Amino acid sequence: MPLNDAQFIQKIVDLQSEMEGYTDKASARELYAQKLLIIIKEYLMSSTVTITGTSNQGPFTGTGKIS
User: Fold this and answer.
1) What three-state secondary structure class fits 57?
2) Does the predicted TM-score (pTM) go above 0.85?
3) What angle in degrees, to the nearest 10, is found between the helix axes of 5-19 and 25-45?
4) Per-residue pLDDT tens for 4-49?
5) Cα–Cα distance measured from residue 67 to residue 65, given in angstroms and rounded to the nearest whole number
6) Strand partners for 64
7) Which of helix, strand or coil describes residue 41?
8) CB 43 within 8 A of CB 8
């Protein structure tokens, strides 16, 4: 499954919109960093990784999730 760029962009835009309402800049920066980290992790872990190659036992393929 490929990365969903449109969803990632929308989540970032939503986060920025949410942050516009905060008046305490110091706490808003901390909250922004925490929420941004969560969005990035969700984005990266949403994809499936596919590998192919060869070894001394012949060709191989595999899939996995980032965790």
Assistant:
1) coil
2) no
3) 170
4) 899 999 999 999 999 998 999 999 999 999 999 999 999 998 888 8
5) 6
6) 49
7) helix
8) yes
Diameter of the chain by CA atoms? 62
Contact between residue 28 and residue 22 where contact means Cβ atoms under 8 Å apart: yes
Contact between residue 61 and residue 52 where contact means Cβ atoms under 8 Å apart: yes
DSSP 1-22: ----HHHHHHHHHHHHHHHTT-
pLDDT digits (tens, 9 = 90+) for 46-59: 888 888 889 888 88
Burial readout 1-30 (b: 16 or more C-beta within 10 A, e: otherwise): eeeeeeebeebeeeeeeeeeeeeeeeeeee
* Structure tokens belonging to residue 45: 């872990």
Q: How far apart are CA 38 and CA 19, in angstroms?
A: 15
